[in-house]
Amino acid sequence: MRKLLVLFISIFIIGCSSNNAQHKTFNPIQNIDFRVNSDVVAVLDYGLIETLGILNVTMHGIPKDDLPQAIINHLQSSAVNLGRSQDINIEALRELNPDFILISNEQLPIKEQLEEIGKVLDFSLDKDRFIESFFDNTTSLGILFNRETQVSNLIFPIKENVRLVRESNVTNRFTTAIIDASSESIKISTNEMLNNLVYDTFDYHRFSNLDVSTLSRYQPDFVFIIDHDRSMDRDLYYNIEAYLNGRTFYLNPEVFNFNVVSVNSVREMVDSFRR
Fold first, then answer.
1. Where are the alpha helices (DSSP H) in 23-181?
2. Residues contacting residue 116 through CB under 8 Å, at least 6 positions apart
3. pLDDT number for residue 229
4. 115 with 221, same domain?
5. Which residues of the chain fall below pLDDT 50?
6. pLDDT the model gives residue 27
7. Is residue 162 part of a domain?
8. Residue 126's domain spans which residues?
9. Residue 159 placed within a domain
10. pLDDT tens digits for 140-177?
11. Which of 44, 79, 151, 247 matches a 20 to 30 Å C-alpha distance to 85?
12. Which CA distances in Å does 118 have to 50, 53, 103, 111?
């Protein structure tokens, strides 16, 4: 039975110009004639693959090369291999001849090429409203694949923890520093999605001129560290109050690299700050 999905959910992505970032409003599944049990679906984004795997949705084609560990358990062996999320095998995709192709931010550079093969549903995340666009996109997936109840059950506790973290920070106005450490550099994080989550969604206070060398001068209430290869030298922060008070926390680099944005990874992100 064909189901016409007419939705009015606002999804935002960033369209970048040379000078200013501009928001582009669209709904990835508006006015779509989608047959859940018969349409051929290719899913090119790892986060979408993990979420749809959790929802037990059949995917006919997915990129299987270089899979992140997070989605191995949700891999469907019967799906056609479409290469890598950042390097899609276009010929394999053409041979699959999908009715719908689900993409996110990483596939935007080849979106026009994909549109020549099948109907593209764009689930890109907005870096300026990360958590809201994630909730919107996941809700849209639930509607598209008749999984509304499951999606609601999955995202409700995440929303509740977001609310609790935010309420705590609004009351206390905690200051924080997010350190991104690797063998190449140790710096204050510049990841747009992470900064939006921490400073806009959770409402932690941001220092305007903070860098690693001035941690002891600013004395943030919390220090969150993403240590990609265990290269962080504790001497950089052992004398700050956050460390002495047990408020220095390590964040899982596999989750906070934002390569896989799914219900599992976002739940872990939020839980990291809830603890």
1. 46-54, 90-96, 111-115, 130-144, 148-172
2. none
3. 79
4. no
5. 1-25
6. 63
7. no
8. 3-154
9. no
10. 999 999 999 999 999 999 999 999 998 888 777 789 99
11. 151
12. 22, 21, 12, 10
